[in-house]
Amino acid sequence: MLKQHVVVVGAGAFGGWTALSLLRSGARVTLVDAWGPGNSRASSGGETRILRATYKDRIYTDLVARALPLWLENEQRWGIKLFHQTGVLWMADENDALERAAAAHMRDAGLPFEELSAAEAARRYPQINFDGIRWALRETHAGFLLARRACAAVLESFRAEGGTYIQAAAEPGAIERGALKEIKLSDGSALVADQYVFACGPWLGKLFPDVIGERIKPTRQDVFFFGTPAGDARFTEESLGVWLDYGTRAWYGIAGNESRGFKIANDTRGPAFDPTNGDRTPDTSALKAAREYVAFRFPALRDAPLVESRVCQYEQTADSHFIIDRHPRAQNVWLAGGGSGHGFKFGPALGEWISQMVLGRRPVEPTFSFARF
User: Fold this and answer.
1) Predicted structure pTM score
2) Which of the residues 63, 78, 141, 263 has an alpha carbon 20 to 30 A from that of 71?
3) Shortest CA distance to 188 belongs to which of 158, 168, 163?
4) Which part of the chain has CATH 3.50.50.60?
5) Are strands 143-146 and 113-117 parallel, antiparallel or unpaired?
6) CB burial readout 64-79, b (16+ within 10 A) else e
7) Which residues contact 210 (CB under 8 A, 6 or more apart)?
8) DSSP states of 115-158 as a string?
9) Pairwise CA distance, residues 38 & 228, whole Å
10) Which helix (H) or strand (E) segment is 237 a member of?
11) Coil, strand or helix at 366
């Protein structure tokens, strides 16, 4: 019996893990990416991503509970360090509905966490100014992932386990009689398969303007890395790790970053952005806002020098939920995107889900379906 052939377009967190999961489930898989996994234009590019389970929606906490052991299992299989379990500190002010809901979800999912009073948090983390903070939630199971390295590791494993990888731009061909005939590659060739998965991040709307279009909007997001004082252990992975301040400010960061510096970014959605040709020069007003926040919340870093910066993007849906569903007019096409700035951590769990949907072993999840629009 011939194996079902599936083409996956996009080698980021969603596409790479989907391709690997399909391969391990017995399919013949071809993975295609325009610039390579974890490239600087991709939403899965960059050095680090947070792995946390603090969500208002239970579905995401449950997905983290599945994704975390998969990350650890593949780490062990590949003999490569991808996850740093530093803990994740949430600083809660009077608007603490997120943290309260998440605590209940994590308790049900068996994910360990601590609740700290503001005074307790200040004693444990003297490098933080807790003005305006009522209490803190610390996820002890959580931390950060090495994003670019993980994307490369997934591709390396995919190829080693028998998958085919092609680096080329791809676009869908004609849809006839309820099915996609082929995909066209930038080298002039075409690929024909039984099923197709498009996991193209911020490019998904351009490839499918009639189905996705403005439902996914790429936004520009500036990220800064500040240098810490020489020999100062207060701003390392071991002493601080990941922190989030999602009250009125919506800032987050990662201390240490394997010696790259003190990472900080604003989670507020930025302006519209072209992921292909957009200028990735850091914005001076965004840097000014980051400096002001750092000076307030981390006083010892008031005069810290900027040592690195990045401009990445979110691919945002209106409700921040992903889109993972079958194309409404092509039964052999699956669309997966809308990572919305928080999708990376779920890669192995979503890859598992999507591969099961493609192979007919799992129904579409309503939260991520087109039906909600």
Assistant:
1) 0.97
2) 263
3) 168
4) 5-45+148-215+319-372
5) unpaired
6) bbebbebbeebbeeee
7) none
8) EEEHHHHHHH-TTS--TT--EEEEETT-EEEEHHHHHHHHHHHH
9) 27
10) none
11) helix
The 10s digit of each residue's pLDDT in 298-342 is: 999 999 999 999 999 999 999 999 999 999 999 999 999 999 999
Q: What is the DSSP letter of 76?
A: H
Hey, what are 209's tokens? 């303007």
In the chain, CATH 3.30.9.10 sits at: 83-144+217-312
Residue 344 DSSP class: G
Cβ pair 370, 327 in contact under 8 A: no
Over the Cα atoms of the chain, what is R_g?
21
Could you tell me the sign of the dihedral formed by the alpha carbons of 3, 4, 9, 12, in that order?
Answer: negative
* CATH, domain range 83-144+217-312: 3.30.9.10
Helices (H), 210-325: 284-297
d(CA 140, CA 115): 11
Model confidence at 247, in pLDDT bands (50, 70, 90)? confident
Contact 9, 197 (CB under 8 A): yes
Superfamily classification of domain 5-45+148-215+319-372: FAD/NAD(P)-binding domain (3.50.50.60)
